[in-house]
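Reopening this one. Same input as before:
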Amino acid sequence: MAIENGSAFLLKIGNGAVPPSFATVAGLRTTQLSVNGEAVNVTTKDSGGWRELLSGAGVRSVSVSAAGIFTGSAAEVRLRSAALAGTIDDFELSFESGERMRGRFLVTRLDYAGDYNGERQYTLNLESSGAVASL
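Same output, byte for byte:
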């Protein structure tokens, strides 16, 4: 398995059309993706003392964290608008291998910071709403 470059992990936001086209949220320096699952325990006295889980049950979610440099791109403006309005939007994650994940996410956190002589930076968190498909 080849090592993948972290800079090739891209976060993209949809344009609101159906079907959406996606634009890269520019200036990302760090990104993180977490796939979460909640187990449903179906252990009974017939389980022989071993825990049994129900496959396909429970709540699944995807969380994304990213940090970068603010560039004022149209994608960043759309992301900020979604955060301020509390609306769910289409997002796509793409990886160097060509694999992509697509789904609807809510911006749960958007922070801006900057030094007097430095660039304006931001961090963001996204939480999935509905199914996230691997393409």
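So the earlier flakiness isn't reproducible anymore. For the record, The chain has a mean pLDDT of 89.
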